[in-house]
Amino acid sequence: MKEPLLEGEGLYKLIPQRNPIVMVDTFFSATETDAETGLHVQSGNLFCEGGLLREPGMIEHVAQSAAAFAGYAPYTRGEAPKLGFIGEVKKFKIVRLPKVGEFLHTSLRVLGEAAGVTLIAAETKVAEEVLATCQMKIFIKED
Amino acid sequence: MLIKDYYTIENVSKQENGVVRFDISLNEDCPVYEGHFPGEPVSPGVCNIQMIKECADQVAGKPLFLNNLQQCRLTTLVTPLAHPQLEVNILLEEKGDAYKLKATIGKGEDTYLDMKAELIYNV
Known about the structure:
heterodimer, A: alpha+beta, Thiol Ester Dehydrase, Chain A, seven-stranded antiparallel β-sheet, two-stranded antiparallel sheet, 15% helix, B: mainly beta, six-stranded antiparallel β-sheet, 1 helix
């Protein structure tokens, strides 16, 4: 696995969310159109129950991965992350829920951008196993 | 409730055309707002999706697994201060091994979120 660019609280430079709802803790890479992120699923996670990360946690992990992606370019310019909100979730399919102790590795791709809305596609894996795929529209709140 | 202290169900009522309406109140003291976002509480869209799922569990009478969220549009930012009272409308239809769900969150004439999904029994 590649070396992360940012880890743990280092992600606070990319996202405005804070505990108890931080759902991305690793940022591997970003290009113009693609990014890779990760999350260690820990038992104290807000969205864990019965040793599993439940559905809203999977969705929020993708949303915050997109937020981190959106925050990466401003970060490289020394700017603070902006608030982002989910506008739409589409075709969110979960094959299985991740277990506590597993590491989620998520790949994002920008499918389109217009008027402050970004459409992304995401795939979340544990090792080589695909756990979930979706599309999401994210709004970034401009100051 | 997955997200502790996120909301309270005040009333449940059957509507026409099979819809079950849950009148709920959001709890502005829920710890989730400490992080979403510091100093600017906004109800996380995923927590509202979870609230719909939990209302659907009640309608089904068993815990469901939201494994196929076909579409969820979040058209209004919901906050516990601006929207302390919400109506969650659930239309759940059993289809073989799965359930088809259509749901909205809103208040009166206004819709803040609408969602279409398929769920299965969470064994």
